[in-house]
Specification:
It is a single chain. The protein is an alpha/beta fold. It has two domains: 233 residues, 3-Layer(aba) Sandwich (Rossmann fold); 236 residues, P-loop containing nucleotide triphosphate hydrolases (Rossmann fold, 3-Layer(aba) Sandwich), CATH 3.40.50. It contains 18 helices and 22 strands. The chain has a six-stranded mixed β-sheet with strand order 6-9-10-3-11-12, sandwiched between helices. It has a six-stranded mixed β-sheet with strand order 18-19-20-15-21-22, with helices on both faces. β19, α16 and β20 form a beta-alpha-beta unit. α15 runs parallel beside α16. The longest helix is centred in the middle third of the chain and has 16 residues. The radius of gyration is 23 Å and the shape is globular. Pfam families: ABC_tran. Keywords: ATP-binding, Cell membrane, Membrane, Nucleotide-binding, Repeat, Sugar transport, Translocase, Transport. It comes from Endosaccharibacter trunci.
């Protein structure tokens, strides 16, 4: 087989006519793809376009129904991921697959523990794992258990695990989805080093601004078809969006209206019991989107969890509509009108094997069963109204697991919209969500503010924070470094404060 991508030079991986169907649903329609040594090819598309299926076929997780693959000039048809790894192909999953009760070092080397004299060489394992973690900007002990690590730290452990494989092709599936700007730069430095050593990459990401920084070429899937190829990564974002969704998207961030002068929530010198943050003070007004920025470990997630009552505080106060709120009481926070969309959507936001209707009923029993009885019919009617109101692409009886990431996020948001809260907190609202669905989430956030809610947004995506917020608070190592009005908030200024 020969590639038809217009490029020259030896080919490391070649795919021709790859087709895959699950039942009657055709997911991939005859995909051609080539990747050369030391090349990074971006694989773009909306959720459901076929990116993950194509990646899983290359990595040995699925077998194609038709088509052929070649690896370094030989026929390639892996039966399982072990076959792919033996050939030098590794996959970093978007969904973390770490073992929570093993140490970081054990997770990095799981399945291939280094041996010396018939025993596990733990000293070497800790040293190598620690070196990779430090190179990625994660300063934690490799002996620490994975359980309790933030989503961003878990992602860095997954990346460190892949970097130890010695693979000649790494498939990166949304590797920066949970990472901030500084952590992303650490990752990119390692990727550039490996590229210079001849390692190839297939890079799947919804962060289009990253593509031009790190990739060499771009291929775009839509509804299982390869719809566009670009021989350079220097492609305008509107062009890529049009390729991905099949239509022009004029804007991503909605226009923001001036907020009200009424103060909804005031946080006064709040400090975490765990030490994750200390002496944080700010206010959010009705109709305001208040962004919180900072690098991994700044205390952003811990702060909003404390405001929502999920984590205890050691000192400070929260005042809602002029009245003090009892801290450390999530039920009290919800009753008073403070709700949280958590960063770990699948682990904390939805119950994956329950229906959309059941997920929407969680936390809303008092509103559905006003007479004291909760029946399937009342739950279904309640869910149907919210599904239509929030534009969830799914039926109330459908399993939450079957939904795309964007629609799962809409379900979590819809659950709390039903309560008409006073303060709506969203932690990493678009992590792992494609650009088309991301624009819809942004419109929802602007709509919440337009209804007079005080909206707090935490995001590792700096462009997201800047594009949505009226004001941005920057945290660094648990300390509040400043609050910037929209006119003064810029990438440079935020990063100056975040790294001060």
């Amino acid at each position: 087989m020969t590639p038809s991508d217009g490029q020259t030079g030896p080919v490391r991986l070649l795919l021709r006519g790859i087709r895959k169907a699950f039942g009657t649903n055709i997911v991939l329609h005859g995909i051609d793809l080539s990747i050369r040594p030391g090349e990074m090819v971006a694989l773009l598309g909306e959720n459901g376009a076929g990116k993950s299926t194509l990646s899983s076929i290359i990595a040995g997780l699925n077998r194609p129904d038709a088509g052929e693959m070649e690896w370094e000039g030989r026929a390639y048809a892996p039966d399982n991921p072990g076959d792919a790894l033996e050939n030098g192909i590794g996959l970093i999953h978007q969904e973390m697959k770490l073992l929570p009760d093993l140490s970081i070092a054990e997770n990095v080397f799981v399945g291939r523990l280094p041996m010396r004299g018939g025993r596990v060489d733990r000293a070497w394992m800790r040293e190598r794992a620690g070196a990779h973690l430090r190179a990625l900007g994660l300063d934690v002990s490799p002996d620490r258990l994975v359980r309790g690590l933030s989503v961003a730290a878990q992602q860095q452990v997954e990346i460190a695990k892949a970097l130890t494989l010695g693979a000649r092709l790494l498939i990166l599936d949304e590797p920066t989805a949970a990472l901030g700007l500084a952590e992303t730069e650490h990752l990119f430095a390692q990727v550039r080093r490996l590229k210079n050593e001849g390692v190839s990459f297939l890079y799947v990401s919804h962060r289009l601004e990253e593509i031009a920084q790190i990739c060499d070429r771009i291929v775009v899937l839509r509804d299982g078809h390869l719809v566009a190829t670009h021989d350079t990564a220097q492609v305008p974002v509107p062009v890529l969006l049009r390729d991905m969704v099949g239509r022009s998207i004029d804007r991503i961030f909605p226009s923001v209206q001036p907020p009200d002068t009424r103060e909804v929530i005031h946080v006064d010198t709040l400090s975490s019991k765990s030490g994750a943050f200390r002496d944080v003070s700010f206010s959010v007004h009705a109709g305001e989107v208040f962004g919180i920025a900072g690098i991994v470990g700044a205390g952003r997630t811990e702060l909003v969890r404390a405001i929502a009552g999920a984590d205890p505080v050691s000192s400070g106060a929260i005042v809602l509509d002029g009245e003090a709120l009892r801290t450390g009481q999530p039920d009290e926070a919800i009753r008073r009108g403070i709700v949280l969309v958590p960063e770990d959507r699948k682990g904390q936001g939805v119950v994956l094997d329950h229906s959309i209707a059941d997920n929407l009923a969680l936390g809303n029993a008092d509103r559905i069963a006003r007479s004291g009885w909760l029946t399937p019919d009342t739950v279904s009617r309640f869910a149907q109204e919210l599904v239509q109101r929030l534009g969830v692409k799914g039926r109330p009886e459908q399993s939450a697991r079957s939904l795309s990431g964007g629609n799962q996020q809409k379900v979590v948001i819809a659950r709390w919209v039903a309560r008409s809260p006073r303060v709506f907190i969203l932690d990493e609202p678009t992590r792992g969500i494609d650009m088309g669905a991301r624009a819809a989430i942004y419109d929802l956030i602007a709509g919440l503010a337009a209804q007079g809610m005080a909206v707090i947004v935490v995001s590792s995506d700096l462009e997201e924070v800047l594009g949505l917020s009226h004001r941005v608070m920057v945290l660094a190592r648990g300390r509040q470094m400043g609050v910037l009005p929209r006119a003064e908030a810029s990438n440079v200024r935020v990063m100056e404060l975040a790294t001060a």
